[in-house]
Design a protein that fits this description.
By secondary structure, the protein is an alpha+beta fold. It is about 25% helix and about 20% strand.
């Protein structure tokens, strides 16, 4: 079950089944943790003056930091990491021009061939997935998670480019394969032309430091403590600014005024979307993860109606993963604990709020708490 250039499944049918109450079958073997790239592996050389440092870029975004391969800067459902990365390298990089397969466990590359004619300076990371890795545990619930994971990986590359002083990245989240991230070398650049009219993801207001990116991890539950309103607004704003037009954003909060809040149109304040305690319902919808009922807040991306076609489904889930990743880094910068929540069943938020059923589903989530990052257990 390896994704290369085209979807091997009917995404609309796969999403409908993933949203149902059907439980996955018992686990199956996940297979190799890295695609079997042909040829010998080779180290990534040190960057010369003015070159894009691919060794640092990939260390900050995709590389595993332990022998098991579980600990990486990019979160993944079940720590299964299905995203595969091919690098199309042009001039101005620490690798010679060509096409390479990246091995995140060994932080090495395999040369696959020449770069295409017209390859621009810098590197283009092409992201696809090996579906078997995620399906081994999540079964029929895998495809939304695969798309969310790919969005997280694209965001991780985007942030690594910002942290490493590279040129402005060009992120495309409905490409073939699933997503591409083009990163120019350092120095003045001509803004990339977007013939599809798609907006560029907004860079963070303050570029993250390499230390921030290497330290980010999904905090294990529990995540108690309601974030202050100004911090929650900042996290929601980070998500909304990079989530595209297919998604809306809100957050479930607890006492003293439990309910759902969402950002105002200008993003400068929060307004009340609904009153009443929503977190126990979210816990039931999120594969019965009871700890969510006690989280300080739960940020939600919602949209993607029943009649969405395959491009809409891909776009909404890729954008949700990308935006939640940026929201996660924003939350950590404000001292919050945070954990993405990707698996949702029967999570028809619109219907729960009295709107037409099937039009407004939970796509992704981020649990938040005020527990200090020093208390986090990353083992």
């Amino acid at each position: 079950m390896e994704h290369t250039r085209e979807d091997p499944v009917d995404l609309a049918a796969a999403l409908a089944r993933a949203r149902s109450s059907q439980h996955p079958d018992p686990d199956t073997p996940a297979g190799p943790a890295v695609r079997a790239w042909p040829g010998p592996s080779r180290p990534i050389p040190e960057a010369g003056p003015g070159d894009l440092d691919l060794r640092a870029l990939l260390r900050l975004s995709l590389a595993a930091s332990d022998d098991s391969g579980r600990l990486r800067p990019t979160p993944s459902a079940g720590a299964l990491h299905p995203v595969d990365t091919e690098l199309v390298v042009g001039a101005g990089c620490s690798l010679p021009p060509g096409r390479y397969g990246y091995d995140p466990l060994r932080h090495r590359v395999h040369r696959l061939g020449r770069q295409p004619d017209g390859t621009p300076p810098g590197v283009t990371a092409e992201l696809s997935v090996t579906a078997r890795r995620t399906a081994s545990h999540y079964g029929h619930r895998a495809w939304p998670l695969l798309l969310l994971d790919t969005g997280h990986a694209a965001a991780s590359l985007h942030l690594a480019a910002c942290a490493s002083g590279a040129g402005e990245p060009d992120v495309r989240l409905d490409a073939s394969p699933l997503a591409t991230v083009r990163i120019p070398p350092p120095g003045p650049q001509t803004p990339a032309h977007r013939p599809d009219g798609a907006p560029h993801p907004q860079p963070p207001p303050i570029a993250p430091t390499p230390e921030e990116l290497l330290a980010r991890r999904s905090t294990p539950p529990p995540l108690p403590g309601t974030p202050p309103p100004d911090v929650l607004r900042a996290v929601l704003a980070a998500a909304a600014q990079s989530g595209g037009d297919d998604l809306r954003w809100c957050a479930a909060v607890g006492a003293p005024r439990p309910g759902l809040v969402e950002p105002t149109a200008d993003g400068t304040a929060l307004r009340r979307l609904a009153t009443g305690e929503a977190r126990p319902t979210l816990a039931a919808w999120a594969a019965g993860q009871a700890w969510i009922a006690d989280a300080g807040a739960v940020l939600l991306a919602h949209g993607c109606p029943d009649d969405a076609d395959a491009p809409h489904i891909r776009r909404a889930h890729l954008r949700a993963g990308f935006a939640v990743h940026l929201a996660h880094v924003t939350a950590r910068r404000h001292g919050l604990a945070a954990r993405p929540i990707g698996s949702w069943q029967r999570a028809d938020l619109g219907a729960a709020l009295g709107a037409t059923p099937g039009r407004d589903w939970v796509v992704h989530g981020l649990a938040l708490g005020t527990r200090h990052a020093d208390e986090e257990n990353t083992t």
